[in-house]
Amino acid sequence: MKIVVKVGTSTLTHSTGMLNIRRTEQLCKVLADLKNSGHEIILVSSGAIGMGVGKLGLKERPTDIPTKQAAAAVGQSELMYIYDSLFEQYHHNVAQILLTGDDFNHEDRHCNFTNTINRLLDLNALPIINENDTVSTAEIKVGDNDTLSALVAKSVKADLLVLLSDIDGLYTADPHKDNNATLIPEVCEITQEIENLAGEKGSALAVGGMKTKISAAKICVQAGADMIITNGSDPEILYKIVDGEKVGTRFKAKK
């Protein structure tokens, strides 16, 4: 099975912006084990700007473009160093791919990066993808890694996209505000009612929220891939997903 796993900033880092070492180590161990079992894994990883914020000692996520890009430049190199070090323990090679919206909108560039990812998978490497925040501007940005991961899943004809987030899935109401909110285990059609359930922006260091996840789901299901939103606080939940257990919210693909 070809699986795209997207991990958000809130999953990778503490609220300080510094790396959540235990969780990141566990994530890499599980992904390496899934590769060992024969699955093709592509990781879409947020965290560059958030990690740069922590490493530069900034008090909050910057709002101006130059500081965002500076934080991304510092954080991305640190992020890949950590991934390389952790996956090396399990004898897996990683490959960094940084994308912008142009890589999806221009046919030649789209073909080139898709061929590169597929060749990396053939060579048993693990592609790690992020938006190229160091050079991206409003005109060429994808904007969030939920959408980026869905576009990647569509491009490589993945079987499944898993969004590891700080929430268990899509609820009937905001679970932080409504004690009666219940988890929706499966969505077979993304109706206007489903879209209306999406809340606003997530944590202070993150960009996306449930709205971007619903948008990602629409891209996935139209492309023939299922998508699951689930909590990334315990990366071993990926084992349950691969084993077919029901976790989080699964958006069913249109076959």
Would you write up a description of this structure?
By secondary structure, this protein is α/β, with parallel strands linked by helices. It is built from ten helices and eight strands. Strands 3-4-2-1-5-7-8-6 form an eight-stranded mixed β-sheet, sandwiched between helices. Helix 3 packs across helix 4 and helix 7 packs parallel to helix 9.
Concise summary:
The protein is α/β, with parallel strands linked by helices.
N- and C-termini, Cα separation = 16 Å
Number of strands: 8
Low-confidence stretches: 201-208
Q: Beta-strand level of the residues, as a percent range?
A: 15-25%
Count up the helices.
Answer: 10
The secondary-structure class comes to alpha/beta
Give the integer mean of the pLDDT values: 88
Please give the largest β-sheet. Answer: 8 strands, mixed
What is the percent of helical residues? 40-55%
SSE order, one letter for each helix or strand: EHHEHHEHHEHEEHHEHE
Strand order of the largest sheet: 3-4-2-1-5-7-8-6
* Broad shape: globular
Radius of gyration: 17 Å
List keywords for this structure.
255 residues; alpha/beta; eight-stranded mixed sheet; 10 helices; 8 strands
Task: Set out the fold topology.
Elements lengths: L1 E6 L1 H4 L8 H16 L3 E6 L2 H9 L8 H24 L5 E6 L2 H4 L1 H16 L3 E6 L13 H11 L4 E6 L20 E2 L4 H5 L13 H14 L2 E6 L5 H6 L6 E3 L4
Parallel strand pairs: 1-2, 1-5, 2-4, 3-4, 5-7, 6-8
Antiparallel strand pairs: 7-8
